[in-house]
Structure formats: C-alpha cells, structure tokens
Design a protein that fits this description.
The complex is a heterodimer of chains A (about 110) and B (about 240). Helices cover about 25% and strands about 30% of the residues of chain A. By secondary structure, chain A is of the alpha+beta class. Chain A has one domain. In chain A, strands 3-2-1-5-4 form a five-stranded antiparallel beta sheet. The N and C termini of chain A lie far apart (about 25 Å). Chain B has two domains: about 70 residues, no CATH class; about 150 residues, 3-Layer(aba) Sandwich (Rossmann fold). Chain B is about 35% helix and about 20% strand. Chain B is elongated. The two termini of chain B are about 35 Å apart. The chains are: A alpha+beta (about 110), B alpha/beta (about 240). At the A-B interface, helix 1, strand 1 and strand 5 of A face helix 1 and strand 4 of B.
C-alpha cells in the first residue's frame, strides 16, 4: 500500500502510542535536482521499520541508521547528503542534487 | 518532537485546518502555530506568507535559523454524480493522496456497493455542499450531465474559493450551461472558471481514461502557476 504524507505522520503517532521508539526525518533544504521536495518525511521505528521517503531510495538506508541512533540518544541531528562520489558512494544522490535532512525523536 | 505536538499536528490536518510547525534547527526547539494563531505569533508575517504559498522551508529569523513545516489540508475532490467515471476517479484520487466526496441524490447510483470506502452523500447538492464546506483546498467536479443536480452545485462552487471547477458535457451542453449561469447572475469571468470540456486532452474514451484526464487537469491546477505555466515556486 502506498503511503501518503497523511499516513506517515499518523503512523508516527500510532507507533509511539504502541510504545515503540520513533524518529521523524524531514527534508529541510534541497539544492539542484533533489528527488523529494522540502517538507517530505520519513518515519522510522527502533527496529528499522520505515514509511515515507526523503529521496528516491538513495539515502534512506543511511537515514534509518542515523535515526536509530537518534532514538537512542534523544538528540536531534542534521544530516547532509550530496552527489555520489568515490568517498561516499554508498550514500550519494546519483541525480547530482544535495539535501539536508533533520532527524528528531518523538518523545 | 513532543508526542503531544505530533498529535496536535495530526488533529489539525484531520480537521482540514492549516498549521505550521516551527523548528529551531540549532537545538530542535519547536512550537505549533495554528492558522488562527498566526497573526499573534512573533513570526506572524513570515508564517502568513508561508501559509499562502503552502511551501515548507528554512528561514533566517530573529529566533535564529528555523525550519517551517507548512501543513495545508489535503486536497479534496468534491464530485456530483455517483456515476461510472466517479467509480474510477475515487480510487485513483486516493492513490494521489486526495480525499474524495461524492454527492448524488439518486439513491440507485449513490450506493456503498458501487463506492466501497468512499464518502458518499445521497442528498441534493444545495443541502450537502454548504455543510461540507467548499474551501480553497477543494476541487469541484460536476459529472451527472443533469442540470437539476450539477447546476446548483456549480452555483455553489463558483461562489466559493475552490481551486478547480470542472464540468462534464459536450461543447453544446456547456454552452447552454453557461447561458443558464449568466442568467442566474454570474459574471462571464466567474463562469469562465469552469473547465469544459472537462479534463486534459488525452483522447480519453473509457470512464477510467476520463477520470485520469480530470485528475491530470486537477494536478496541473494545483501545481502550475497559471500566469507562467511553470511549476509553482520555481524561479
């Protein structure tokens, strides 16, 4: 089932009420041809389940890993992803854009 | 984010009210500003402008760098006519993330068997539409072909702020419709808002293809700047 922006934040609330650890990642800034607009959300639980997207699937894996850390520490983080290059080939955006993603815990 | 804040944000959306979540990026401090409270907020002017454009984004303010999550209500497509095209349009619109409401006083058409899971009102539009509220996040679509049903709904839609008005019917049918609306006191500019023949010209034949062309036209009305034809918000 495809999730809409609506479902995503409702699901974050539902997960939290079920007693799960939950983080919300939000695209706060984009440069160039970023795949998802500013304001897009990815919600993540402490088992690594996620809903929504912050890119076309390019950096979700890295965001989920960071989000699990944020759920553990409680401190928000600002992540930045740029174009895929040799040093960061695993978590790059092949489209050539850059994005900034804010990750926060639901407390 | 506080659970209470997330819950309030979700409640505003469910009630079809706009709201902005203000997050200070330096430390993650947050507050939710509802549409009715924008004027009294220290960032009132900025927030009002953001609500108008509906765009989330970073801003430099006296409070430091903030991220504004602008939440406007989901698009609602209000349809008169529980007809074959509507049966295709409802699930397609749901996939696009839009709410769908169908109004048709003909109880043989407006049945839950024909429209499982869709908000359906077997009522006359003059009763249902004022109650449902046609706001600026609503697209109105007239699909019955029957002036007794479509005309009162169109009169209500044209007097509202809805961002799209479309009506099914041939050029001849539409010409007669225009005459009736002008006689009813609407201006040529108001009547000119009606997209007719409805939908993008993609050579649609089947009910599902016509639904696709209507949803394409609604998407364009939502996303394109009418003055430039470019995507809204692009330079």
């Amino acid at each position: 089932m495809l999730s809409t922006d609506d479902d995503i934040l409702n699901r974050a609330e539902a997960w939290k009420r079920e007693g799960k650890g939950v983080a919300i990642a939000t695209v706060v800034e984009t440069w160039g041809s970023a795949p998802r607009p500013v304001g897009s959300h990815l919600v993540i639980d402490d088992e690594g389940n996620f809903l929504g997207s912050v890119s076309g699937g390019c950096v979700e894996g890295a965001v989920v890993t960071e989000a699990i850390d944020v759920i553990g520490s409680g401190a928000p983080r600002m992540l930045e992803f740029g174009v895929a290059d040799e040093t960061a080939w695993r978590v790059g955006l092949s489209c050539g854009g850059r994005i900034r993603v804010f990750v926060e815990k639901v407390a | 984010m506080d659970l209470a804040l997330l819950s309030a944000l979700n409640a505003e959306r469910a009630a079809r009210r706009a709201a902005i979540l203000v997050t200070r990026t330096a430390d993650g401090a947050q507050r939710l500003v509802r549409e009715v409270d924008v004027a009294g907020d220290p960032l009132g002017d900025l927030l009002r402008e953001r609500l108008r454009t509906g765009k989330s984004g970073i801003a430099e303010t006296a409070e430091g760098e903030v991220f504004l999550t602008v939440q406007v209500p989901p698009v609602r497509i209000l349809v008169t006519g529980a007809v074959h095209i509507s049966q295709a349009l409802a699930p397609m619109a749901a996939l696009l993330g839009h709410d769908v409401v169908i109004v048709d006083p003909r109880t043989a058409f407006a049945t839950p068997e024909r429209f499982p899971g869709v908000a359906l009102y077997a009522e006359w539009p003059e009763e249902a539409l004022p109650r449902l509220g046609v706001d600026r996040y609503t697209a109105f679509v007239a699909l019955t072909h029957d002036p007794k049903i479509d005309d009162p709904a169109l009169r209500h839609a044209l007097a509202s702020e809805c961002f799209y008005v479309g009506a099914l019917g041939s050029r001849k049918t539409h010409a007669k419709r225009v005459e009736r609306l002008l006689e009813a006191g609407f201006t040529p500019e108001q009547v000119g808002r009606i997209r007719a023949p409805i939908g993008l010209n993609i050579g649609a034949i089947s009910p599902a293809e016509i639904a696709l062309s209507i949803l394409g036209e609604i998407t364009a009305a939502l996303r394109l700047d009418p003055a430039t034809g470019a995507k809204k918000g692009s330079a």
